[in-house]
Write a structure and sequence with these properties.
This protein is of the alpha/beta class and 212 residues long. It has a single domain, classed as Rossmann fold (3-Layer(aba) Sandwich), CATH 3.40.50. Helices cover 30% and strands 22% of the residues. The chain is globular, with a radius of gyration of 16 Å. The model has no long low-confidence stretch (mean pLDDT 96). It binds S-adenosylmethionine (SAM). The site of S-adenosylmethionine has 22 residues, from helix 7. S-adenosylmethionine (SAM) binds next to helix 7.
């Protein structure tokens, strides 16, 4: 996602009580931050945040954390937390490479990865958010028998990610190469998903579970 530099983004987010620039201080304390023991779902690469915001509106008994390294996109996501008065959402402008600095072992109940960058060139594949070195980190922060929900438009990324999940010990609960928009009751169409659906690109969807 390439957006023109938004100079207001960081100062505005610094004023937002639901956004953490020093989120490593919350490691192991996220339930305390939310003030309840509800499950915590994490969206990685949330972009402008439609997925988490809509999910949080529907599921007030779930806590959501959205992260993205791009403040130019996350600013719009974090505005919506305030506008919608969603006390069950928090956000962090972070790189998923450093996810272990922000979450303790077994702290997360579910991870969502929606339309992450496909990085098709061989030398860039290790940047994919589903690449094994990322999955190994997600395994640490996920609770036992928790799941990763993954959607993409990109066939090669999806097929290679199936291998990544298998190779790192996840089992496939759902593998769908052409997911209908209304096929799964809790599906929220993300910003990128809308563009691809409008161009009739089949959406690939997988749910993967890890047993500690
Ligand atoms: C193609 S966009 C998809 C946005 C949104 N999930 C959607 O479906 O509309 C991918 C997002 O992942 C973010 N991203 C890429 N690499 C990341 C990383 N290592 N850590 C955190 N976010 C990352 C990008 O900044 C971008 O906002």
């Amino acid at each position: 996602m390439r957006l023109r530099k938004k100079h207001f983004a960081i100062p505005e987010m610094q004023e937002n009580p639901y956004v953490y620039f020093n989120g490593e201080q919350n490691k192991g304390r996220w339930s305390e931050i939310f003030g309840n023991d509800n499950p915590i779902y994490l969206e990685i690469g949330a972009g402008k945040g439609k997925f988490t915001i809509e999910s949080a509106k529907r599921n007030k008994n779930i806590n959501y954390i959205m992260v993205d390294l791009e403040t130019n996109a996350l600013i719009y996501a974090t505005r919506k937390i305030l506008k919608e008065e969603l006390t069950n959402v928090r956000a962090m402008p972070i790189n998923a490479e450093n996810i272990l600095e922000y979450f303790d072992e077994n702290e997360i109940d579910r991870i969502y990865i929606n339309f992450c960058n496909p990085w098709p060139k061989l030398r860039h594949k290790k940047r994919r958010l589903t690449y094994p070195r990322f999955l190994e980190k997600y395994k640490i922060i996920l609770k036992e028998k928790s799941q990763i929900y993954f959607k993409t438009d990109d066939l090669e990324l999806f097929e290679e990610s199936l291998d990544y999940f298998r190779d790192t010990g996840f089992s496939e609960l759902i593998t769908d190469f052409d997911m209908e928009e209304d096929e799964y009751p809790q599906n929220i169409v993300t910003e990128y998903e809308r563009k691809f659906r409008n161009s009739n690109v089949p959406i690939k969807f997988g749910v993967f579970e890890f047993y500690n």
